[in-house]
Amino acid sequence: MLKHMNYSKLFYHASNSTRTNGADSIPGDKRFVCSYCSKRFRCVSQLTIHQRSHTGEKPYRCTLCGKRYLQKGHLYTHQRTHTGEKPYRCSLCAKGFIQQCTLDMHLRSQTGEKPYTCTEYLGPDVGFIPNNLNFNETVTPNKNFKCVFCGKSFEYLSHMTRHMRKHSGEKPYICTVCGKRFAQKTYLTTHQRTHSGERPYSCMECGKSFSQKSSLNVHLRSHTGEKPFSCSHFCGKRFAQKTYLRIHQRTHSGERPYSCMECGKSFAQKSSLNVHLRSHTGEKPYSCSECGKSYAYKQGFNTHQCFG
């Protein structure tokens, strides 16, 4: 915990700097250095918050549900999920939001604004560069590592090694609980949450938690109304998830990749095939708690509950 830390580390490289009266920062001077990763900060308060990402300290606790946070501001935002307070309102539809950033995402879904340019990652030394730049005029990465299976080139040996596992089938990361293997360490970390129940990514709008950040990002669209995936067949339909777009595009292409092994009938969605299979198996998963009658399809079950 930070209260037991050696604070000489906290002020590393700061002792030779001239300190202004009562101030903990000098504009433009990043003299406070993290003892864990050497990242620099202009003031000690920023450094203190940053170092919690290394120590795991979360000093701010919600008195209603026990959730803990790194920063006081994050706790205040979370508490709105309990109080129902939504101070940020859309000027177009009056919908309320807990956070300003969620409102901003929602507004883009209303106006169609697309402020972010597609980028390409050129490694840790270069970072991300917008695709609308001429790479030949800016930076040309050296791709010296070539995959012996498909010839694809990589700038970093680690990237090539990870890629080659797709060809070799190598999965060096093993779950100690169930024995399942993974090609990448990040996949193993995500999988282990299915055993531990850990859901570290929380929606600040409704409090729902997720084991993966990507799942949280998709969920946020249910609040913002954002639908970034548009149909390329000129029908104008938009979708919140890429999988929904793929399913929709089959209405244009006529593709039906899921076939019944019993009768050969094909379907655009796997869920439709699963429902159809009940006509062969006789499965009736929907049961009335009043009379015990069972139904194979939810529509028939709902009709029964409405009219008896």
From TrEMBL:
Keywords: DNA-binding, Metal-binding, Nucleus, Repeat, Transcription, Transcription regulation, Zinc, Zinc-finger. It is found in: Nucleus. Residues 32-59, 60-87, 88-115, 145-172, 173-200, 201-228, 229-257, 258-285, 286-305 form the C2H2-type domain. One of its GO terms (molecular function) is DNA-binding transcription factor activity, RNA polymerase II-specific. PROSITE patterns: ZINC_FINGER_C2H2_1, ZINC_FINGER_C2H2_2. Gene3D superfamilies: Classic Zinc Finger. InterPro entries: Znf_C2H2_sf, Znf_C2H2_type. It comes from the Eukaryota. This is C2H2-type domain-containing protein. It comes from Cyprinus carpio.
